[in-house]
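re: ur question from yesterday

yeah so i grabbed the chain u mentioned. its 442 aa long if i counted rite. heres the sequnce exactly as i have it in my notes:
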Amino acid sequence: MSSTHVLNIGFDDTDSPKGMCTTFLAYKIVDLLYKQKTEFLDFPKLIRFNPNIPWKTRGNGAVSLQIRTGNVSKIKNQIRNLVEKYSDIKNGANPGLVFFESEKIPEQFTKFSKLALWQLINRNHAKKFAVKNNIEFFYQGNGQGLVGAIGAIGYDFKDHTLELLSYRKNSKFGKERKLSSKSVKTMQEKTLPFTFNSFDDKKDRVLITPHGPDPVFYGVRGENVNSLLRATKILKTSEKLAGHMIFKSNQGTGDHLKNELNKTNMKPYASGKITGIISNEPKIVKGGHVFFSIISNGYELQCAVYKPTGISLIALNLIKGDRICVGGGIRKASKKHPRILNLEFIKIINLEKNYIKINPTCMKCNKKMKSKGQNQGFECIKCGKKSKDKIIVEIPRKIKKKLYLPSVSAHRHLSRPLQRIGMINKESKFDKSSLWFSVYEK
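ran it thru and got these structure tokens back, copy pasting raw so excuse formatting
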């Protein structure tokens, strides 16, 4: 019997805004390996990296596979051919592919992956990392895909979710997706809390179908395999699909916002969180967006809450002195605008009392007194009673000490939904049966 090796395969940036999909390439690779009776050691991993990278396509997701095989050279060649075939290079894809033979992933891989989750990593740094760590790699274009390819192999899950992605037949690529919105709503009701972010009840909007020309028909996110498979039986469409695959993912974990931002690491496009005190009154601008500043450890940072998030009114009701924790991504400074943190959540830690000065009330007539002029006091126009000064009253706050999240339609792939707050999914038993992967009948 020939000796076997554990092979880690990572790839990224095979898609473009005009087509293809890195997860579809993974589906094709798994189909090929499955037919060769390759042993899979875990679910395919779909890792979403820093969502604020400006040149990302859609969800900034990379994929890795871990297999055991006695045909390492043959499989490497087959996968390389598939990457070339299913990468949309003519429309700007910059695919990266890496191979690493080891059952145990070294710590330096994990550090690289953690950094890619919230910072910007230069592609040249990825190439040097690959050489230094004896990673076999291949890329086309500028090699940007190597960052995600390496990171996907090194990702260390502290929490995870699963996503079942269903794929279309080639003849349907780019055509309208017809999926019963009623069935999506029903599916969400029947599978909660083991699925999430499938339907926005407030906006009556389906959230599991992409809008571009890529091969994905829908993607259902959840906590376990059985709930995802159950969801597929509830969803209704007249389109005959090609098959599905379940990925282990960091989606819905909020992992990109766990790093504490400070003056030294707050670089352009970085993601993270910061705790501070509101230093100026929030202002609303044209379009309904709200801006305010916070001070943290002597550093003042401007924050932006955009109307589509659904939490702009929460931001508008903050006042100077409120203590909050906010998370989001750093927008690069320009000639017209300073460095800004685009918010993905607001957690109110402490609320100041809101006092205002108002005209006094006549105790006899129970009516507001009128000003007699600057520094001349106040007078009741009905009975003539006078008063010298305005009175101070407390205005009840319209917001509470709690976590405020964007509306579900505004969630990013990595955003932790409300139902997952405090939840950690550490184990999803990998079943080597075909439940996690299926090619439907033609």
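noticed a couple things. The first strand starts at residue 5 and ends at 12. also The helical segments are 22-35, 72-85, 107-118, 123-132, 145-154, 181-191, 225-234, 312-316.
anyway ttyl
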